[in-house]
């Protein structure tokens, strides 16, 4: 058996994604590249408007032409649409540069001549989840989404981890799909398409699986024009109606099998909390659960094993148990990533993006030029601490220091709790209609302390 690729993550943040891309100043032209083969591949994602009926290929060529004409510095974030291009103006919702963070951190900035842009054009599905109701109309054993889905738009960017985790997951899945596409003989080189994310509750594992599926559906849409995500509700399979469970599993896998048979389909199967399968099996063996449950678990595992051999399936699993999970197919997961609680840097970044959103929507106002206010990210905050130039900069710095202190007070809270904190703080304000950011941050600190004490209880 091959050794799985272990990734341990403590969640410091990715690089800032909110920086606007700008033209390189003409006064300091960068030297031309010595060797053009050294170019860095950078993904450029182009989201079409829901109303667009343009051909993907036409848009791709138009965006490539646009990028050739511009002397961009490549930093993650949006690029303005060219006003003089009616095709793009009419059809494109937004253009985003993605995943430069790793490169940018090491090498400061990517200039246009160092980059070979890879343009991905996509349109979001607005269909929403298609739920499968079981016979009694109560339980659904799975949800199905057509990807890329509107519901998952922006999810990838909102998840903040140690720089590198998201990239490594993306690269792993991309390599697995490439090996499959090129027909690499699995007897000579072995790999599989099973991902296991494990770690404490609320660290974003489920969201990361969904966001990864969404990303891959965009990146691989020229090979797989159709893409689905099937989210298996493991709990519902172990309902008290065990007699129904066998049927639910059969029904589920028949549906997945049909999707997989279509070779232009890329199918993601997400099984949350896989440990519930192991627990059900154990309980059944010890006699404390109906023996039906063991049949259901075994049926599920057999089906998963069968499915694994299909080239166009990626199985995504999550678990809240960090210790080894006693399930055969999970043992074979090639990528096992530990997703831990957010570090100080990640906590600051999560709270900063929350605050920035409250400023954008006008809930926090009343200070500086809040319309254009950009709160510095963790790395640039460290640089700015020693040199606040103006009164305005000093006020901003004070605010960020307060934010940092709140992030420090949030040690031990999960990403899920952190994302809720600003809402809870707002609800606790004595006057929510006049929201002074300094006062707001004080309330947020108090709220964090309450959350913390609840955690200890
Ligand atoms: N590292 C993070 N960065 C940003 N947001 C996060 C992070 N971790 C968690 N969150 C927030 O918490 C929410 C809940 O996460 P999710 O349900 O995916 O976690 P989970 O690990 O699967 O939890 P559980 O095991 O309890 O189901 C996410 O939608 C996201 O808003």
TrEMBL record:
Biased amino acid composition, Polar residues: 1-11
Subcellular location: Nucleus
A Pfam family reported for this protein in Swiss-Prot or TrEMBL: TRIP13_N
An example Gene Ontology CC term for this record: nucleus
Family, per entry: Belongs to the AAA ATPase family. PCH2 subfamily.
GO molecular function, one term: ATP binding
UniProt keyword Magnesium, yes or no: no
UniProt region (Disordered), positions on chain: 1-36
Keyword set includes Transmembrane: no
Domain AAA+ ATPase per the UniProt entry, residue ranges: 191-343
Main location: nucleus
Gene Ontology biological-process annotations: meiotic recombination checkpoint signaling; reciprocal meiotic recombination
Superkingdom per UniProt: Eukaryota
Entry protein name: Pachytene checkpoint protein 2 homolog
Organism: Ziziphus jujuba (Chinese jujube)
Cited function: Plays a key role in chromosome recombination during meiosis.
Keyword line: ATP-binding, Meiosis, Nucleotide-binding, Nucleus
